[in-house]
Amino acid sequence: MSNDIRLVVLDMAGTTVADDGLVERAFGAAAGSLGVETGSAEHATMLEHVRATMGESKISVFRHLFGEEEKAQRANTAFEAAYHDLVDAGHCAALPGAAEAIAELRGQGRKVVLTTGFSRSTQDRILAALGWQDIADLTLCPAEAGRGRPYPDLALAALLRTGTDAVRQIAVAGDTGYDMLTGTRAGASVVAGVLTGAHDEQRLRADGATHVLKSVAELPALLGPVG
Q1: 157-204 pLDDT, tens digit each
Q2: Which residue, among 143, 131, 125, has the nearest Cα to 102 in the 3D structure?
Q3: Architecture of 7-19+93-223 per CATH?
Q4: How many other β-carbons are positioned within 10 Å of the β-carbon of residue 90?
Q5: Which residues make Cβ contacts (< 8 Å) with residue 52, sequence separation at least 6?
Q6: Residue ranges of the domains in the chain?
Q7: Would you say domain 22-88 falls under CATH 3.30.1490?
Q8: For residue range 106-138, what is the model confidence (pLDDT) as tens digits?
Q9: Can you tell me whether residue 156 is helix, strand or coil?
Q10: Is 186 helix (H, G, I), strand (E, B) or coil?
């Protein structure tokens, strides 16, 4: 598949970084800090929303769940603290073939940008745990782009920051429907869903995936040489 893709925008948790339930565990701590009991009907309803909106900016999720800004901020702070503890305890690993795929994409002459729905502090915690501070050309979190997923801002900010010429030169890859919506709304030519994270092929295609891959390791071969 020879083409003119010059910029590859990659999600982190579930796409290049193993999640292994860390988001849900950190959410449990966040909800508990606001008095939501694990195993309760309220907790189950909230967890269903968290799963459906995987990929979205976490503060946006908490604003939806708790309504009041003060509660949302408290939940977000608790979530980040719990997630950081899990990362620091060693519960953070690259998905098989992810680092090699990023290196190959850059070796093909493409820019690679890592994006997330986490805050900058959480993103940096993950990058440091993996030794990935210099693995990509750029890393972006929602606060640095304007809005998080499912809006196109992260992909468009990546385009602007890397000096990419046109939206048709973008490929977006992620494990959630919101990643797919980000790619389609940004006008990316390739919007690739991967099956290593939150959502299944049906959800990925429903939200605009042009391709569905077993993992991000297949992406360099899909894109092929720069055309």
Answers
A1: 999 999 999 999 999 999 999 999 999 999 999 999 999 998 999 999
A2: 131
A3: 3-Layer(aba) Sandwich (3.40)
A4: 8
A5: none
A6: 7-19+93-223, 22-88
A7: no
A8: 999 999 999 998 889 999 999 999 999 999 999
A9: helix
A10: helix
